[in-house]
Design brief:
heterodimer, A: mainly alpha, two-stranded antiparallel ribbon, 9 helices, B: two-stranded antiparallel sheet, 7 helices
């Protein structure tokens, strides 16, 4: 180093005061800018759905309540009261001249669930006999617009409320019946339904 | 003023940076918040407030209720509880097993392992997500999230709890209680420090009757109910038929 003798402070361990090369300065600025862009692109890993005390989206996902039996009944009750309850009553007792009762009905409490699933999917026209009483009325396909899980929840709720103690109806059961019916099914009569298997 | 332009640029950058941080970024991150679906349901949350309640929000604002009341529930933790739903064919084996296990306050992994053990013994279980914190279940069952305030303008979170939190006050009382409480707080809560809001009432034919403001305010209070599980604030709803 030829300039060493001219600069005695460098030999005594002190830093030489010289300007930072412009290209290092520019590179640092560029890195800082790209870093900020990257950080911003990920919003600082901010997720608008994650609140304390949850730490991240994976944790939040893991702690979603599974729709167990209780949740299914809750879902069924809500949908029932919104859609079915207007005619069949929140207490499932039906209304004279309008809708037959569901509480204790043999259609609801049957072992098989095929007929029960058909009723909301196709509707009922003409008469139907419930608990030994003839009902001469018609019901639209009220359940056709519901999702499989919503309709299954309604039917499970109906089968397990007001003293009814029949089994569960799963979304897959509803899906199978819906697939077998195809599009735009005609309303069935009670007699027609009696002919099909439970 | 020689450096006027430089001062302007510096001030512009300083204000612009804080505007980006405090206005632009939150608007980008949360500005698109919209109605969401209640967990395990097809219902939408939150529904718009009915007219009287929407007017009541402005009464709440004008009376400065937010100076003493918050409308935000805080939550410090979450956990899993394993609940036995059916003992199966060997109830004794299952009950012996359960007496050796910790069933509440578990992490997800612990809950899965406990549920696995009980299932192996023939029992059936459900895993319930529970929320914890000193606000719960006193003021609400889960923490408040952005959706709860979707229809509020302005949002009045409040910061000081001189009085109770009101995020779920609509679940706790009815209209008659609220009106009587506004007229004379001490008649309902013995040690209340809330001032009576008598000017919200007028005398009609020798009877005390609430004004429109009072009715709207009560309608707003009754509309405060944030008790449904959402994706960002999950919990297991208590069973219906028990």
């Amino acid at each position: 180093m030829s300039d060493e003798p001219k600069n005695p402070s460098a030999t005594s361990g002190e830093t030489k005061s010289s300007a930072v090369p412009m290209w290092i300065f520019s590179l640092l600025l560029l890195l800082l800018f790209l870093g900020a862009v990257y950080f911003d692109h990920h919003s600082g890993w901010f997720n608008s759905q994650v609140y304390a005390p949850y730490n991240n989206a994976e944790e939040l996902d893991a702690y979603q309540p599974k729709s167990g039996a209780a949740a299914m009944l809750a879902q069924g009750k809500r949908n029932y009261e919104m859609i079915c309850g207007a005619c069949h009553g929140a207490d499932g007792l039906g209304k004279p001249g309008q809708a037959p009762p569901l509480a204790g009905s043999e259609w609801v409490n049957a072992k098989g669930i095929q007929r029960l699933i058909h009723i909301p999917l196709t509707g009922v026209s003409g008469g139907i006999t419930v608990e030994g009483k003839d009902w001469n009325m018609s019901m639209a396909a009220m359940g056709a617009a519901l999702s499989d899980s919503d309709l299954a929840a309604v039917l499970t709720y109906v089968r397990n409320s007001w003293g009814n103690k029949a089994g569960e109806v799963t979304p897959d059961d509803v899906k199978a019946v819906r697939a077998a019916l195809g599009g735009h099914p005609q309303p069935m009569t009670g007699e027609e339904m009696m002919k099909m298997s439970e | 003023m020689k450096s006027g332009f430089r001062v302007f640029v510096a001030a512009f950058i300083a204000l612009g940076a804080s505007w980006c941080g405090f206005v632009l970024a939150p608007a980008l991150q949360l500005g698109a918040a919209k109605q969401t679906q209640i967990l395990n349901s097809s219902e939408i949350y939150p529904l718009q407030r009915p007219g009287a309640a929407a007017l009541g929000l402005q009464v709440y604002r004008s009376l400065g209720c937010a100076a003493c009341h918050t409308t935000q529930v805080q939550q410090s933790g979450f956990a899993c509880d394993v609940v036995l739903t059916s003992a199966g064919k060997n109830p004794e084996v299952v009950s012996n097993l359960i007496s050796t296990l910790k069933l509440t306050g578990l992490t997800k992994d612990e809950a899965d392992s406990v549920a696995g053990k009980i299932t192996a013994a023939g029992g059936k279980t459900e895993t319930h997500i529970v929320t914890t914190g000193s606000d719960i279940p006193r003021w609400g069952i889960r923490r408040s999230v952005a959706e709860d305030f979707l229809w509020d303008y302005p949002v009045q979170l409040g910061s000081i709890r001189v009085g109770p939190d009101l995020a779920n006050v609509g679940l706790r009382y009815d209209a008659a209680w609220e009106l009587a409480h506004l007229y004379e707080p001490k008649s309902k809560v013995k040690d209340s420090v809330m001032p009576p809001f008598r000017f919200l009432f007028e005398e009609k034919n020798g009877e005390v009757a609430p004004t429109e403001d009072a009715k709207n305010l009560v309608a707003y209070l009754l509309s405060l109910r944030a008790d449904v599980p959402l994706y960002d604030a999950p919990f297991t709803q208590p069973s219906l038929n028990k």
